[in-house]
């Protein structure tokens, strides 16, 4: 997996063993980033509107900014599918695909946590 040119390692944690966790959190720690990666893992490549309909509570601006951030960090690929009418498709890069076990673990943990929370109510 190739790394993007920008470094995700914060200078304040560079010498600490947990800095790799900070790096991961930096890449997918924003509210919608793991959701976008999850939808692309499940659905495969999607156009902007199709991806937005998969995440119906996200605004177009937030989706656009999140996709741009994920692309800059080497996790999402943006491809122009057609010029007329102009259409763009988003897919995961090799780096984005490598997040599958992380996203699946988040999904499984969240399912278990929500089930336990419902049982406590």
Automatic annotation (TrEMBL):
Residues 19-118 form the HTH hxlR-type domain. InterPro entries: HTH_HxlR, WH-like_DNA-bd_sf, WH_DNA-bd_sf. GO terms for molecular function: DNA binding. Gene3D superfamilies: Winged helix-like DNA-binding domain superfamily/Winged helix DNA-binding domain. The keyword Membrane does not apply. The keyword Transcription applies. Keywords: DNA-binding, Transcription, Transcription regulation. It comes from the Archaea. This is Helix-turn-helix transcriptional regulator. It comes from Halorarum salinum. The lineage of its organism: Archaea, Methanobacteriati, Methanobacteriota, Stenosarchaea group, Halobacteria.
């Amino acid at each position: 997996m190739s790394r993007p040119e920008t470094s995700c390692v914060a200078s304040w944690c560079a010498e600490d063993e947990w800095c790799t966790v900070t790096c991961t959190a930096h890449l997918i720690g924003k509210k919608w980033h793991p959701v976008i990666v999850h939808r692309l893992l499940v659905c495969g490549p999607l156009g902007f509107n199709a991806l937005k309909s998969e995440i119906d509570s996200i605004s177009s601006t937030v989706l656009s900014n999140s996709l741009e951030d994920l692309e800059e960090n080497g996790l999402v690929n943006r491809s122009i599918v057609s010029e007329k009418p102009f259409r763009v498709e988003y897919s995961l890069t090799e780096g984005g695909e490598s997040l599958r076990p992380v996203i699946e673990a988040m999904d499984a943990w969240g399912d278990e946590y929500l089930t336990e929370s419902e049982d406590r109510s």
